[in-house]
Amino acid sequence: MTQPPKDFTADKDQLHPRNRHRGRYDFPQLIRTSPELAQFVADNPYGDASIDFANPQAVKALNKALLKQFYNIQMWDIPAGYLSPPIPGRADYIHYLADLIASVNEGVTPTGKGIRVLDVGVGANCIYPIIGRHEYGWRFVGTDVDPVAIRVAKQIVASNTGLSGAVELRLQPASTNIFSGMVKPKEVFDLTMCNPPFHGSQAEAEAASRRKEHNLGTSKGPKPEPNFGGQSAELWYPGGEATFLWRMAEESAHLVRETCFWFTALVSKKETLPGLYKSLQKLGAVEVRTINMSQGQKTSRIVAWTFLDAEQQQAWRAKRWLNKPAPTA
């Protein structure tokens, strides 16, 4: 019987306590780390140093500096138009996943290369594996339907010694599949994670970008340019977020049910939650949790579920999490 979803609510307007990006950006330090950022930094109307967050090049330069300063990523680049996500929010997802597995491991977060995470839709930016590897020493498998994204992510991994041997990238050949074809026989994961496409079509994604440009007063022409970028597979999926998550839930139950402890996904629209909860109940999820997050005025949540009962969870902990090594450099 599925238990009612639990709420683990983060304080409003605050990042996770272990997030390295709490507080204001130290732009002088970031510029010393990455001098190319300097051209995009100027005082805002309040007299504080900042960048134009409506400028994709500025956002990309900021991300390069953050990754270099905080995560020892010396070489990081993505093609024009690809998603360059806000790193503080991405780091929050990783830290809340660490709390999630600690909550079923007597408060201790399993660390080191023995912990395996499947990142569905890793993207060209490879952000989650970068952060998860640095913070907890976890190993990652990243999947994506875009061959360019996989190629670029592989270049990032190959160019940074800290990621060597810790991140594997796999191309998903079927654009609507989630886990199907990506999990090898007898392969297990302690966690899966995903930031699903938000929109239901390219037209819907472009309309949303136009509304955002209008609200920010940054409209530059008939074709909107998202400030964080994004290709079609990163921004939309037939049927939108709700359909993507329904497919993910179905595949988690029928294809990889007992090969993963926690399945998780970001859910942007609160209207998506009731349908997802109902699907997970029908599919026999033993436990479902909702972890609320906030960054400034933006709110989102992680939904996590498992098909393992108490006895199976104990066996998993004993086999995979006890006496695991600390993260390697």
Automatic annotation (TrEMBL):
InterPro entries: METTL16/RlmF, rRNA_lsu_MeTfrase_F, SAM-dependent_MTases_sf. It catalyses: adenosine(1618) in 23S rRNA + S-adenosyl-L-methionine = N(6)-methyladenosine(1618) in 23S rRNA + S-adenosyl-L-homocysteine + H(+). It is an enzyme of class 2 (transferase). GO terms for cellular component: cytoplasm. It is found in: Cytoplasm. The keyword Cytoplasm applies. Keywords: Cytoplasm, Methyltransferase, rRNA processing, S-adenosyl-L-methionine, Transferase. Transmembrane segments: none annotated. The keyword Transferase applies. SUPFAM superfamilies: S-adenosyl-L-methionine-dependent methyltransferases. Belongs to the methyltransferase superfamily. METTL16/RlmF family. NCBIfam families: PRK11727.1. Specifically methylates the adenine in position 1618 of 23S rRNA. This is Ribosomal RNA large subunit methyltransferase F. It comes from Hymenobacter jejuensis.
